[in-house]
Amino acid sequence: MNPSSQSNALTDAEIETLExxxxxxxxxxxxxxxxxxxxxxxxxxxxxxxxxxxWLPLVLGESDRAERALRGEGDxxxxxxxxxxxxxxxxxxxxxxxxFAPILAYDDDGHAxxxxxxxxxxxxxxxxxxxxxxxxxxxxxADALEPVMRLLADAQRxxxxxxxxPDDGVDADYxxxxxxxxxxxxDEREAVIHQMLDGMQDVYDFFREARERAxxxxxxxxxxxxxxRNDPCPCGSGRKFKSCCGAERAS
Length: 251
Fold this sequence. Notes:
Number of helices: 12
Helix content: 40-55%
Largest sheet: none
Radius of gyration: 24 Å
Order of helices and strands: HHHHHHHHHHHH
Shape: elongated
Low-confidence stretches: 171-178
Structural class: mainly alpha
């Protein structure tokens, strides 16, 4: 049973603390909270489960302090708890299906850009790129990811204009097959962000059965037919199973 998204959600103060501590643990390579939010949404939607030890290093970065935190050393245990709580809250929100409320950063004019959120989501997809192909090939659901890809293309375009390096794990591990999206006009950005967030529930629901199959216990199949207690023992002794090898197992 998933915990309530509201009962586990971070407070505004905790979100600010998370932002500050992520920036401090690795100023160059750790995720900002908006990127982390998109990343957690992708982890929740993923058709295949992603182990914590695989995704957590991408959140923390590569500094010595981040490496110590991953080994359970240092003073960042409370930071890891905040990250885990936020991931669980995002997953619970999608599980409940009553509306998705993201964490977005706003500029000085009060406008959200959504680029970092899209980068985080794409980084989450890049952990299992082949597993997402079923969505891209489905005529009814393929467009659910289009707003994410538009914002991702916009972010990459901005980085190229600023001569910044593309975000690790996006270009290299997830390629939208060269689709060239038009730049997002200022007056349509808010609509694109809303479309992206509306599509998250569709993505989550599309992969629901795949996640359930991946998380269900494997079926145990017998290599040999079950031997009854009164059947001849398969060891060839000529005695009944209950009086031979079956008796040994019972003891």
